[in-house]
Amino acid sequence: MRHFLSTYGTALAGLAIVIFFAVATPAFATPGNLSIILKETSFLAILALGFALALMTAELDLSIAEVASLAAVITGALVHAGQPVWIAVAAGLGAGLLCGVANGLAVTSLRVPSLIATLGTAAVAKGLAFMITQGVAFVGRWPTGFTGLARGSLLGVPNLVWWLVGVAATIFVFVNWTRAGSHLVATGEAEEAARLAGIRTARMKRLGLGLSGLLAGGTAVLLAASVSSAAPNMAGDHFLYAIAAVLLGMTMFTPGKPNVIGTLVAAFTLKALGNGLILLGAAYYVQDIVLGLIIVGSVALSAAAMRRAAFVKKLSFRT
């Protein structure tokens, strides 16, 4: 029972939250409202999965929100300039990937701690975004070929959810069923041991941070297509939620470790929680208070799980 609760307890708590709001406010469980929650979860989860990939290599990417905003601005500028949609999308993805690669090189080649390197990248990205827009968002009529990436539905399921399913499935297969994915995880869990085993740990760190930037770019493209706007700070509100989703996800399924399924469940739980509080009439600042408590609590639970795992391994080794 203790193992069951430590593995699935947080997920069950999230389910309890959803049930509570469904009972407390009838508007919560309506198809329209659930569709809104799923769409909001898609943006958050894709961004959070990028952060999780960086964290799997024991590195922090604190630039995800600003990189996403820059990628959205670049995409929006090209769309408004009349460039083909595929060029605008490729530019947004490329901008995110370039920032991620820059983070990886700073960490592995220049030996700058990821905390500092990614904060520096965030500052540069923010400055570039404001330089491109001059502080004014790109708004107006956007081509349907672009907005269709995020709007509409297929088989009754919103397009954004399909994008999330595709991205999450790809990352899950990569992390769990490929050699590169196992090397990525090994680098984060025991870097020196991985290096002695022949794993190119520096390359894995660059890969994790590069993928984090790429997913930030993907989030930006979908976000811009959904709201038909591109502003220099449009992804800022997703930053703490993305970190909270990863940390909360580390308290379930594989406690103490970043994981895809846990991140998805946590992202949905956070968005459902925020949506439910709004429907109940809670003040806007209540969400921030709850979010802060979730971040602290999830870190504490993850740290406890890691200490227990280390203790068990130590006992097994002695035995």
TrEMBL record:
Pfam families: BPD_transp_2. GO terms for cellular component: plasma membrane. The lineage of its organism: Bacteria, Pseudomonadati, Pseudomonadota, Alphaproteobacteria, Hyphomicrobiales. Its main location: membrane. It is found in: Cell membrane. It is a multi-pass membrane protein. This is Sugar ABC transporter permease. InterPro entries: ABC_transp_permease. The keyword Transport applies. The chain crosses the membrane at residues 12-30, 36-55, 62-79, 85-108, 115-140, 160-177, 207-227, 239-256, 263-283, 289-306. Keywords: Cell inner membrane, Cell membrane, Membrane, Transmembrane, Transmembrane helix, Transport. GO terms for molecular function: transmembrane transporter activity. It comes from Microvirga aerophila.
